[in-house]
Amino acid sequence: MAACALFLCCLCLLALPMRLAAADAREIIKQVEERLNGKSAVLTIAMIITTSRTTRTMKMESYSVGNEKSFIKITYPGKDYGITFLKIEDAMWQYVPRIEKIIKIPASMMLQSWMGTDFTNDDLVRESSISRDYDAKIIGENDQEYEIELLPRPEAAVVWGRLVMGVTKNEMLPKGVSYFDEEGVLVRTLQYTEVKQLGDRLYPSRWVMIPHDAEKAGNRTVIEITEAAFDVEIDEAYFTKRALQRFSD
Amino acid sequence: MFRTALRIAWASLARRSSRSVLVVVMISMSLWGLLFMEGIYDGMTEQMISNAIRSDSGQLSLFAAGYREDPGLHRLIRRDGEIVALLDGDRRVKSYVRRLRQDGLAATAHYSRNVMIYGVDLAAEKRHGRLDSYLLEGEYAFGAKKRGVLIGARLAEKLKVKIGRKLIVSAQNSEHEVAAVALTITGIVRTNNMGLDESAVFIDMDRARELFMTPAGASQISVILQTEKDIPAVQAMLRHHFGILQTLRWDELYPALMQSRVMMKGFNLVMSLLIFGVAGLGIFGVMLVSVLERLREFGIMLAIGTSFAQVRGIIFTESFILGFTGFVAGSLLGGGTLLYFYHHGLDLTIFSEGLEEFGIDVITHAVIRAQYFITAFIAVMLATFVSVLLPLRLLKKSNPIEAINKV
Amino acid sequence: MFFKIAVRNIFAYRKRSIITVLLLACTTALLVFATAYMDGSHARLIQSSVEIYPGYVQITHPGFRDNPSLENLIFDAAQVSASLKDFPGIAVFAPRFESYVLFSSAEKAVGGMFTGIEPEKEMKISRLAASLKQGSYLTSADNAMVYMGSELARRLKVGVGDQLAFVGTGADYSFAADTLTVKGIFQTGLFDFDSRASFVAKPYFDRMMAAKNYATHFIVQPERPVEAAALAVAIGRRLGPEYEAAGWQQTMAGLVQAMRVDSIFGYITLAIIFMVIFFVVMIYTLLVVYARVREIGILRAVGTGPGQIFAMLLLESVLLGLVSVLLGGLIGGVLAWYFHIHPIVFSGMEEQFKQYGLALTAMPTDFAPLVIMRDMAIMFVLSVSATLYPIFKVNRFRPIEAIHHV
I want to staple B32 with a disulfide (CB 3.0 to 4.6 A). Which of A163, B252, B334, C1 is the partner? Predict the structure, then answer.
C-alpha cells in the first residue's frame, strides 16, 4: 500500500519537470516577445540589403504598440523618403508620397518582399504572433542558452513546418531563429547579435536575415537598431490611416 | 416475281465476282473510315464541352448582377435558397451545385501563386459533374476536419507540392481584411479545363464561408439538366423568376466550344458527302459496264416479253445488293471499332503536351450516334440509286433488236 | 512501240480514260490544296502567336526561363547589342525588361505586367503598334506614358489621358513607384494578353526601375522566319555560354505539338479519302481491262508474251497517271497560289481562335512548289498501284479462255 503510494508520488514527481518544461518554454517565449517589443517601442533602424550584385542601405523610424500596431517611416534614401507603412492587426497599408496614394496591401502581395529585403510583408505583420501560432518546447539546454522548438498549431496559417529558436538564459533575449519547411529543409535563418544597452534594456542591436534557397544565394538583410526607446507614450494618432500621409514629411 | 429478280441480280453479281467484291469492299472501307473519323472527332469535341460543363459552367450558370464584369464577394447571389427550391421542384433539372469563388494566394515555404479559391461541396460536385473523375492523385476528400484542399495539376507543378503538404491559402474576405488559413493538400485534379488546372484550389464550402466571412450566399450556381433540349426553356424560366441575376448557358460562357461543335458537324457532313460521292462513282462505273455488256441479254428478255419495269427492277436490285452489303459490312466494322474506342478510348499520350495546351483530353472516347449510320445509309442508298439512272436511260434508249444483233 | 500502242489504247477507250483522269486530277488537286491549306494555316497560326509579342528568337540569361528572378537578368545589354549588330540573318532586335507591378487607378488596384521596350524597334518586331485601338503608340522620349492592353484599362477603369500609379520592385530590389498617364490603348484580341500587359519606353523604365543596361530578354526578328531555329543556334554560339538563345519552337513547344496533332488528323482524314479513291480507280481499271479481255487474248494468241502485255497495260496506267497528276497538280497549285494571295476568311471561327490565344480571321494557304511536287508524286504512286491488281488479274487468263470470254 505504502509502496504504491510512494511509487505514484515518484511518478508524479517525474512527470512534473516535463510540464514545467513546457510551461517554461511558453513562458520563455512570452518573455522574449515582451523584451523585443515592449509595451511600446520607438526605434531608429538602418537596413543593409545585400545581394550577389549590389548592396543598399535604408533608414527608417518605427513606432509600435505591443504586437498589434506599428507605424514605419522611411527616412533614407532620398528617393524613398516619406514612404510610410501602417500595420493594424493583420492589415497593412502603405503611402507613397511620389504618387500620393495610400495602397492597401492585398493578400496577393503579402508574401512579396518588403521593400526589397529578405523579409516579406507577411513577416512584418506576423512576427509578433509566435505565441499565438506556435507550440513551444525546450529541446536543448546548456549554461548559456535554451534551444526551443516551435511547431505551428494545426490551425495556424503559417507556411513554416518548424522553427528553432535559441534564447540566452541571462538576458532572455533571442539569439537566432531557424525556419524550416515541412520536409525539414532549412529555408532561412535570423540571427540576433551585438546585444547592447538600448533605451532601458539590453537589446540585440544587429539582426541578420539569411535566406538559404539556392536561388537567393549571397543575399542577406541586416537590421541595425541605432536608437531605441521602450514603453514610452506614443500618440494614438500615429495608428490611423491619416497618419500615413500626415507624418510622411 | 421479286424473288426472280433477286435471283437474277444475284447471279449477275456472282458472275463478275471480283468487281462486285471490289465495290462492296470499297463501300465498307469508306464507311469504316468515315465512321471512325466521325466518332473520334465528335468524341474529342464533346469531351471538351463535357469537361467545361462538369467542372465549371454546368449547362446553365447563375451569377449575381454584374458579377462577370466585376467579380468579388460583394456580388453574391443572396436568394440562393429560393433558387434551389425552384430547381428542386423542376423535373427537368438533374443536378445543381453552389459555389463560392474568390481571388487569393496560395503559398508554401518556398513558392506562392495567385489562385482562384472555390468553396465547394464535394459530395454535390460528385453527383453533379463527377468532379471525382478528374482526380489525378490523392483522395477526393477534405479530410475529417475539412482542412483539405484539392488543387489543379498545373498549379501543383508550379508550386512544387505533393499530397500531404501544407498550403496556406489567403484572400480578402467580405470585410476587405486579409484572411488566411492553413490547409493540407489532399488531392490533385486534372480537368483539362485549362483555367482550372492552372489556378484553382477547391476547399470545403464551410471552410470557405469562414475564410471569406460570408455565412450565406453563393458566387455561382451551376445547373445540369436531364436533357440538353430543355436548356433554352429552363434558362427562360430562370430569367423570368430571377431577372436581375445573370443566367447563362455553357455556350455563352464558352463560345469557342460551341463553335467547335458546329464546325465538327459541318466537317462531318462535308466528309460524308465527299466520301459517298466518290463511292457513288465507283458503283456507277460498275453498274454502267454491267448494263452495257448485258445489252444483248436484256434485249432478249425484253423481246420475249419481260416488261421494262421488271428489267429495271433487276438492275436496281443489283445495285441495292452491292450498296446494302457494303453498308452492312462497313457498319459492322465501323461500329465495332467505335464501340471499342467508346469503352477503351483512343490513347494519344504521345501528343500529350500539344493536346493539353488546347485542353483536349489525352484519352478520347469515341461517340456513337445513330445519326452516323442513318446518314451513311441514306448516302449509300442515294449513291446506289443515282448511279443506275444513266445506265437505265441508255438501256431504255437502245433498241432490243439492235441489241440482240449486237456483236 | 509500246508507247504508241499505249497512247492509242488510251484514246480508244476514251470514256474510261477521261473518267480516270478526272478522278485522279481532282484527287491530286484536293491533296495539293489540303496540304497547302494545312501548312498555310499552321504557318499563319504560328506567325500570329509568335509575332503578336513572344517573338521568333529570344535571348536570355541561361537560368531565366526556369527561374525568372532578378538574379537571372541580362546585366550587360550593351554587350549583347554589340554582338547582335550586323549579325547575318537578323532583321531587327531589341531588348525588353518585363516586370510585375501593382497598378492603382482612382478606383481599383490590379496586378499586371509592366515592360520597358524600345518603341521604334518593337514596331518592326511585334504587333504592339499595329494593335493600337485608341490614343497613340509610344516613342522613346515618352516619360511616364503608358501603352496598355484594352482589358487592363477596362479593369482599372482608365482611358486615354487618365492617370494611374504603379508600385513595384526595381532591378536592384529597390522600391519603385510613379504616376503614369495613359498614352494609348491596344487590343490584340488575346484576352489574356490584353488584360495584363502594359508598356513604357525603356529609357523611362530604366530610370524608374534602376534597370539601366539591364534586360530580362532580347527579342530577335529573323530575316527569314522559317529559319528561326537555325538562327537561334547561330546566335547562341556567337554569344557564348553566358547567354541562351531559344527559337519559338522551344519557347512555345506546346503550340508546335498542337500543330503536329492537327496535321496528323488532317492526314488521317485525307488517307481515308484516298482509300476510297484507290478502290474506285482499281474498280475502273478492272472494268476496262476486263472489257479488253478478248483483245488481250488475241494478242496473246499471236505470240505477245505476258510480260509484254503487262508492260503495255502498265504503260497506259503510267501515262494516264502522269497526265492526271500534272493536271491536278496544276489546278491545286493555282488554287494554292490564289488563296495564298487572298486568304480565306472565316467568320464564325474567331471565338475558337481567341480561346487558344490567337487573333485571326483569315487563313492563307501555303504555296510551296516542292511540297506540291511531293503531293503529285504520292498521287502518282497511288494511282499506278491501284491499277496493278486488275492488270495482274487479267494477265492470268489463258489466251483461248480470253478470246471466248463473255
Answer: B334
CB–CB contact A106 C109 (8 Å): yes
Domain boundaries, chain A: 25-246
Nearest by CB to C173, from A80, A96, A116: name it. Answer: A116
First-residue to last-residue Cα distance in chain A = 79
The H-or-E segment that residue B118 falls in is: strand B112-120
pLDDT tier for residue C353 given thresholds of 50, 70 and 90: low
A44 has which bridge partners?
Answer: A61, A227
Q: Which residues from A are below 8 Å from B when comparing CB atoms?
A: 90-91, 104-108, 110-111, 152, 154-161, 179-182, 187, 213
Lowest mean pLDDT among B383-387, C150-154, C289-293, C343-347: C343-347
Question: In the structure, what pLDDT confidence band is assigned to residue A12 with cuts at 50, 70 and 90?
Answer: very low
Mean pLDDT for the stretch of residues A161-189: 90
Count of other CB atoms within 10 angstroms of residue C240: 8
Q: Which residue of A has its CA nearest to C169?
A: A116
Q: Of the given ranges (A241-245, B101-105, C20-24, C356-360), which has the lowest mean pLDDT? A: C356-360
How confident is the model over B252-301, as pLDDT tens digits?
Answer: 888 878 888 888 888 888 888 888 887 888 888 888 888 888 888 888 88
Exposed (0-12), middle (13-18) or buried (19+): which is B144, by Cβ within 10 Å? exposed
Name the grid cell of C324: 492526271
Residues near C44 by beta carbon (within 8 Å), at least 6 away in sequence: C343, C360, C363, C364
Range(s) of the domain holding residue C160:
57-251
- Note down the domain range covering B296: 2-52+257-405
Query: Do residues A29 and A177 make contact, with C-beta atoms less than 8 angstroms apart?
Result: no
Residues B174, B116, single domain; the answer is yes
Same structural domain, C287 and C244: no
Q: Do C261 and B354 touch (CB under 8 A)?
A: yes
Task: Centre a 10 Å sphere on the Cβ of residue B157 and count the other Cβ atoms it contains.
Answer: 12
H or E element in which residue B170 lies: strand B166-172
Instruction: Give contacts of C169 with chain A, Cβ < 8 Å.
Output: 112-113, 116
Helix (H, G, I), strand (E, B) or coil at C168: strand
Q: Is the pLDDT of residue A14 over 60?
A: no
- Picking from A103, A132, A159 by the largest number of B CB atoms within 10 A of its own CB, the best residue to mutate is A159
Task: Tell which residue, B291, B315, B244, has the closest CA to residue B398.
Answer: B291
Q: Which amino acid is at B93?
A: V
Q: Which CATH number fits domain A25-246: 2.30.38.10, 2.50.20.10, 2.102.10.10, 2.40.10.270?
A: 2.50.20.10
Same domain, C204 and C223: yes
The set of cell numbers assigned to B228 is: 440538353
pLDDT at C358: 57
- CA closest to B211 among chain A residues: A157
Terminal-to-terminal C-alpha distance of chain B: 30
pLDDT on residue A21: 53
Question: pTM to 2 decimals?
Answer: 0.78
The burial of C177, by beta-carbon neighbours within 10 Å (0-12 exposed, 13-18 middle, 19 or more buried), is given as buried
Element (H, E) at C3: helix C2-12
The answer to whether B23 touches B384, Cβ cutoff 8 Å, is: no
Nearest to B43 by CA among B350, B357, B339: B339
Model pLDDT, residue B11 = 86
Predicted pLDDT at A16: 46
How much is the ipTM here? 0.75
Q: How far is A92 from chain B (nearest CA, A)?
A: 9
